[in-house]
Design a protein that fits this description.
It is found in: Cell membrane. The protein is mainly α and 508 residues long. The protein has 19 helices and no strands. The chain is 81% helix and 0% strand.
Length: 508
């Protein structure tokens, strides 16, 4: 077949009818999973009042969802390649809806952590399937860039729009409503997806290696747990043991993949400099965005004393910026270059985080909205272009595994953003001076979390309660400013690294 005939055939395949409606279904799935990663941010004060978790439990409630997703994405992406991506997506959607009910009606911190972990298992079946199906539905590179742009906009905007969704619901319902909203969306996804989505799988998949699945999950979760706990409590023997187990598990996983005829993840992909650079940029983009949104939600409610809806509206510009750049990311990357687009996006997000180092109780809405718009725009641009790079560097039969790498970076970035930046915030926050005369048990509750301090202040005499709350708010603000400075530094360093690693990289 001549090259011209091949090109015509490729373009005809890339224009199969119904592909954009199928994309809409996939975007619905990724939007919901992304929203669920951050929607809990605004509900945290209400959840704290109801379930009374400790500071550590509160961090686990916030990030165990992303930990579990990150640990299982590679395995689930590979499973989708084997049993069918549509089948895995729809099965996961049903499970996601069912487990959402368990989250909504959790009655203890331990039950909430378990429910969030199970939601992560279900979420891990959704994310890689969506991007892999896009790779197999859109064969024309330019159309695929548009489709990935829409997908990336939904993923980036979902993380930013979560607080707004939470704000609307919390203004009218109890905190469990932020999970029940998943049910009607998942029902639509399953019913419409059954009719519109094409099935695709690797024609010669080979067996699914269960030992690799276990090694991936244990290694990822243990490493992230060790990092999070060490940042809060320092080095202890149990934390060191978790780190050793995690690193050993990941090394064993990587070595095992090189010996299998049908690996869960082809480690040779990382020999491609552009692929590795895109994954790195992907991870740190979401680390910055997720950490920013999660702790800004608490700052707006518990320091500036805004309503959940008011806080969500202030954070909306991040979603608008992410959608705006996500939709045109492919055009920008082709007219300039991949490395200019990614580096520019990382730098913009770093500048937004740097602006947060100047926040205080009197910071204006205009300044916060401007910083969030710039940060969202940067995240949308960098994340979308890196996702396109990751997809375009692998053959389509490996789309699930490659998509899983992209999604693992996304979820691991989200988890680390909350865990590491949260550890900085918590470590500084706990050092505030409690006014004299406050009972010992009240001091413990107040230093556990800002939500706890707010509750304790209500039970104290007016003057003493006001002094306690002011000290706690000041300490939290200092912690948030420091964490934002750390994140900004990391983003700027990542931008420089991406500039060199993505040299010469082009979109497919």
């Amino acid at each position: 077949m001549t090259s011209t005939a091949q090109q015509v055939k490729t373009e005809r395949e890339g224009r199969q009818p119904g592909r954009w409606l199928a994309l809409a279904v996939l975007v619905l799935a990724v939007l919901l999973v992304a929203v669920d990663a951050t929607v809990l941010g605004l509900a945290t004060p209400f959840l704290s009042e109801d379930l009374k978790p400790s500071g550590t439990q509160l961090l686990w409630i916030g990030d165990v969802y992303s930990f579990v997703i990150a640990g299982l994405l590679v395995s689930m992406g590979s499973l989708g390649d084997r049993i069918g991506r549509k089948k895995l997506l729809l099965t996961g959607a049903v499970a996601f809806g069912a487990v959402s009910v368990l989250n909504a009606y959790a009655t203890t911190p331990e039950m909430m952590i378990l429910a969030r972990a199970l939601l992560g298992v279900a979420g891990a079946t959704l994310m890689p399937s969506t991007l892999a199906l896009i790779r197999n539905i859109f064969h024309d590179p330019r159309e695929r860039s548009i489709a990935v742009g829409i997908w990336g906009a939904a993923a980036s905007a979902g993380a930013a729009v979560g607080p707004l969704v939470g704000g609307v619901l919390l203004n009218h319902f109890w905190w469990g409503s932020v999970f029940l909203i998943n049910l009607p969306v998942m029902a639509v996804l399953v019913l419409v997806g059954m009719k519109l989505l094409p099935e695709s799988r690797d024609p010669s998949p080979g067996p699914w290696d269960l030992l690799s699945v276990v090694l991936s999950l244990v290694g990822m979760v243990a490493v992230v747990y060790a990092v999070k706990e060490a940042a809060v409590h320092g080095i202890r023997w149990d934390i060191s043991l978790a780190a050793v187990v995690g690193v050993a598990g990941l090394i064993w996983f990587a070595r095992r993949q090189l010996t299998l005829d049908s690996p869960l993840l082809d480690m040779r992909l990382f020999q491609h400099r552009g692929f590795s650079g895109a994954v790195l940029a992907d991870l740190f983009t979401i680390l910055g965005l997720a950490g920013l949104v999660f702790f800004l939600s608490q700052f707006l409610q518990l320091v500036q004393m805004r309503t959940p809806l008011g806080a969500g509206l202030i954070e909306l510009p991040a979603a608008i910026g992410a959608v705006a750049t996500g939709l045109v990311a492919g055009v920008i990357a082709r007219r300039t270059s991949v490395r200019i687009a990614v580096t520019g996006g990382l730098t913009a997000l770093g500048l937004a985080l740097a602006a947060c180092t100047a926040l205080d109780a009197d910071t204006s809405v205009l300044l916060m909205c401007s910083a969030l718009f710039v940060g969202g725009a940067g995240a949308g641009l960098a994340f979308t272009v890196t996702a396109d790079v990751i997809l375009s560097t692998v053959p389509k039969e490996q789309a699930g595994a490659a998509s899983a790498v992209s999604e693992t970076a996304y979820e691991l970035g989200s988890a680390l953003g909350i865990a590491l930046l949260g550890s900085v915030v918590t470590g500084i926050y706990r050092g505030f001076t409690v006014p004299d005369g406050v009972p010992a048990e009240a001091v413990t509750a107040a230093q556990d979390s800002l939500g706890g301090a707010s509750e304790v202040a209500k039970s104290l005499p007016a003057e003493q309660g006001a002094a306690l709350l002011q000290a706690a708010q000041s300490s939290f603000t200092h912690g948030f400013e420091t964490a934002a400075g750390v994140a900004a530094t990391v983003l700027f360093a990542t931008a420089v690294t991406a500039w060199f690693m993505l040299r010469g990289q082009r979109l497919g």
